[in-house]
Amino acid sequence: MDFNKIRGYLFILILGLVSVMFFYTVKPFLYTIFWAAVLATIFHPLYQRINKRLKSENLSAIATLALATIIILVPLSTIGTLVVGEAIDGYTALNNHQGQISETLASINNFLHTNRYVTRFNINDAVISQRLDDFSRNAVTFIYETAKAFTQNSLEFIGLFILMLYTLFYFIRDGESLLNKATYLFPIGDRYEHLLYKKFKSATNASIKGTIAVSAIQGILGGILFAITGVPSPLIWGIIMAAFAVIPVTGTFIVWLPAGLFMLYAGHIWQGIVILVVGTVLISTIDNVLRPILVGKDLKMHPVIVLFSTLGGILLFGISGFVIGPIIAALFQSFWEIYEDYYHNELEQK
User: Fold this and answer.
1) Domain residues of the chain, as ranges?
2) C-alpha distances in angstroms, 250 versus 79, 146, 244, 311?
3) Which of 64, 93, 144, 232 falls between 20 and 30 A from 331, CA-CA?
4) Confidence band (pLDDT; 50, 70, 90) for 132?
């Protein structure tokens, strides 16, 4: 019996068990750690420039963290204030238009009774009215529940955000040494390990850059649409729409859908129809068209792979999936490139 082999197998088994236990210990905070790693990758060049001047790793990391916090928090606070203000104004306007909304519903009911083409279909106006009423109630309930969930999750978000900043400080300061340690322990060779890190970095930057670019385009289109249809404060709503476009789970429909319904109920029929049609056909679908092209161009990856990896990432990992999905696809592609490079001679002979 070879006790050295038994000792080696036993050590690997214990190492695996301890690693699994550690994974489940930090599992509730994996997304926090992931976003800290993503932001550290983005802000590390800034840290290096600051460190050249300050010559102090701690001070440079603190300065970089402060700038990153400002860059993240200022837009979030501004957009949050705009959303709350416009929501209050919209609620007030909705109450002020109750009479006009009733007139609109009465006009629809009258149209169903008097139009000779519609009457041929024997449409039950009571059913239509009930459906409209149900749709209105469901839309209002959805908006209310979304706002309620956002408010209830604010404290949790603040706590996780603070943890993310704490982790980000150490990732910025110690990221290079942590990466060197990981490449030392990973048994596939430094050249391939640096290739994988380069792909991770490229996928992260490409996903975020592509998301910001597409969101800006959606916000501009939404602002123009609202200006044409006479929605108040189109510039502000365009900014809000761009902000929600960054979040794949909600998207822009959370802005243009209530706006279109409000315009319909307020008696502005063609404006409401235009908002709903353009929002559905153009604004909501442009994300699936442009994002794969922009991200795939930076990653040298086919747009179809980018599209499905992004959608699959969102389904599996939620809001973070729009970055995680392309990263997994990029690593998948990298491992096949490593395989091709490592077995190049064998493949040529075959």
Assistant:
1) 185-341
2) 15, 10, 7, 14
3) 64
4) low
